[in-house]
Amino acid sequence: MSYCRQEGKDRIIFVTKEDHEAPSNAELIADDPNDPYEEQGLILPNGDINWNCPCLGGMASGPCGSQFKEAFSCFHYSKEEVKGSECIDNFRNMQECMQRYPELYPQEEDKESTQAEASSSSVSAAPTEGSALPPETDSTPGTSTSESAVSSDSTSLVDNQTAS
Amino acid sequence: MLKCRTVWKKLAPLARASSTVCRQNVRRTGLTSRRIPACGPVAHMSTGPAGGGRENQLYILLVGAAGVGGALYTYRTVKGDSQRYQDRIDEISSRSYKRATAEPATSIKSESSVIPEPEPSLEPEAAPSLEPEAAPSQEPEAAPSPEEPSPPAPDAEVAAPETTELPPGGPAPDSLKVPSHTPYLLIGGGTASFAAARSIRARDPGAKVLIVTDESDPPYMRPPLSKELWFSDDPGVTETLRFKQWNGKERSIYFQPPSFYINAEELNSAENGGVAILTGKKVVHMDVRGNKIKLDDDTEISYDKCLIATGGVPRNLQVIERAGEEVMKKTTLFRKIEDFKSLDKVSRNVKSITIIGGGFLGSELACALGRRSTEYDLEVVQMFPEKGNMGKVLPEYLSNWTTEKVKSEGVKVISEALVKSVVCKDDKLEIKLKDGRLVKTDHIVAAVGLEPNVDLAKSAGLEVDSDFGGFRVNAELQARSNIWVAGDAACFYDIRLGRRRVEHHDHAVVSGRLAGENMTGANKPYWHQSMFWSDLGPDVGYEAIGIVDSSLPTVGVFAKATAKDTPKAATEKSGTGIRSESETEETATSPVASLTLAPTAEQNKDEYGKGVIFYLRDKVVVGIILWNVFNRMPIARKIIKDGEEHADLNEVAKLFNIHDD
């Protein structure tokens, strides 16, 4: 049983688990997915990539930012059967650039080379990528699972980054 | 004023009468110095009985007196306000002048007559360094300089007005060849600045961003300085500044290692742009019309867009400032990396430390040092004027409960303590409180607030807020059309919660990011509400959002906590080290082998184990604290965003599922 106490202007309510079992009748205003003020997830409503998404960490803004953007854009807009298969060169450029900054992009050679080239490996990475996105980007896990090949690669790189 | 009004009302008919009479008198006598309603084409109302001469004078006197009284009151109010404003500006400028050194500023950009003299002396030192530097950088301004050695005088005079970035006859030959122009200039090298830099680079491909900071360190995060770094097992932590997060992942407090940044000289020539940092340089003057700033070494840098993210300096108690050199030497104002290093050293070498201040910083440091107290035989005292820790944030019952927790961390808490004086006696500090108590200690840490750094307000002509301090900016964080302010120094308009100034890490990230977006054309207002958090030992942790002021009425909904509800457990579960990370950065891809703590639930004696506290303003929730309840911040954010009046807050509390993990 919940009980209530008032200490001056402050009210204190103690509740048990049972008290909170009934669903809440508090009304929340529905969110507008196209609200321009809101923080956007990885993919914007118009389909573009949100380079400023916190989930990318510093990937798009670092020294290899332009290579990363090219590679990821290529992948994102790729319509090939094996998504991103025409983007090998872009990914190679990105990898080369990243190798020049081992401090920023700690190298895990095996993981990187396989993931960067084979989008099929993304399937295993997809669930982790989905959970990896911060809670507020609720719209993205559904839409971005197809992007997960690159993003999981990038997120794993970000993950291993010493600081972002 | 009221008195005047009532008197006036009574005298109104007489006044009207006297006004007509006055006018007649004026025409007769030629007196014009009285406050009379305008002569001539003014429709005047009734014509009362025209009194005799003596009555006239009495009326005139009364009217005159009322008028003068009103005028005097208005004058004094206006003067007082402008005086207060002027005092503040003077105080600010006196601070900046103190630091704007007594060195004769031998500005290179002086009249050409002066130039031939310093130039020749500069040449031998500057020339060898300029030549190798000029080659890679290829700035247009650099071009004339290699020619300097050959035809000194004429070229010098031509080159000098352009080469404003030459440092005045310097000792260091590898002096920074600072770019004379940068598209994006960020003043200040802290969290907000870094977040803005990242945002700009993400949105404007190939952007060239220059960060100017007077610190010697590149941008770093501040929270670990009073939290994680103190709990590190690494004896070399003061050097590495790395900390192990709860989940075992280690990271540095620096946002990025030095290789992330490019050299200032290379900024203009970098093909894909980059972020360059100029450390150890202070911006002393800002010319808003000319879109340029001046550094303390007289270098001028012009910009297209500028961000001011100067943060603030810790406040000090007046009694300590007046107490003299000896006391100041034993006092730490905690904010930067060097303060952390020095306090760490002090804590190992003294017997007693006293922390003055009961807010976030004071309490966190007290808990951190309290932990060490057993190891190092250190006495830790914390004193503050409020009744309990976080007295200005938490409602009283919670503040008291928190104070007990702090005490159990090994801290001697002295509440309701107002410091009257501090003296240094026999190499120990004696703090005398207003109620007569005396505290003897070896070192003081003053955590009594932050003074926002608005030194540039005067030269830039920017508005400073008199209520909250800081630069006044609009909802888009703009101070002027091409100047933005973010972080601790920004007093901004929050569409939902009103004008405020926030001094938290996540706010610096959010506002910095927003400023960066707006600098690249986004025009978004401050909308995503920032949060903050604090841990007081391993058992008490909370996250908060919005306006969390203990003077507001609150409604707290609590459940009993289990062993699973501690900050430690929360971060382990989400796989992040700093809770803000789980909000703003990505979370770990591999969930840590999650804890299966046995539900030793019920033995928790504490009443306030976990729960949600709502802060209300006019029946609308404006602030929420999640007390030992984690990873629910998005719900809290949503409730504040809605800004609705909820009849039953218990129903709202249900949304948080406080009984679950």
Quick gist of this model?
Chain A is mostly helical and 164 residues long. Chain A is 38% helix and 6% strand.
Secondary structure elements and pairings:
The complex is a heterodimer of chains A (164) and B (661).
Chain A: E1 3-7, E2 10-14, H1 65-76, H2 88-99, H3 109-117, H4 122-132, H5 140-144, H6 148-160
Antiparallel strand pairs in A: 1-2
Chain B: H1 2-29, H2 53-99, H3 118-137, H4 144-147, H5 152-162, E1 181-187, H6 191-203, E2 208-212, H7 223-226, H8 237-240, E3 242-244, E4 250-252, E5 274-278, E6 283-287, E7 292-295, E8 300-308, E9 312-314, H9 318-321, H10 325-329, E10 331-333, H11 337-349, E11 352-356, H12 360-376, E12 379-383, H13 396-408, E13 411-414, E14 419-425, E15 428-433, E16 438-441, E17 443-446, E18 450-452, H14 456-460, E19 471-472, E20 478-480, E21 483-485, E22 490-494, E23 498-500, H15 505-519, E24 531-536, E25 540-546, E26 554-559, H16 567-574, H17 579-584, E27 610-617, E28 620-627, H18 633-642, H19 649-654
Parallel strand pairs in B: 1-2, 1-8, 2-5, 8-21, 10-17, 11-12, 11-17, 12-13, 19-22
Antiparallel strand pairs in B: 3-4, 6-7, 7-8, 9-18, 14-15, 15-16, 20-21, 22-23, 24-25, 25-28, 26-27, 27-28
Helix pairs in contact in B: 1-2, 6-15
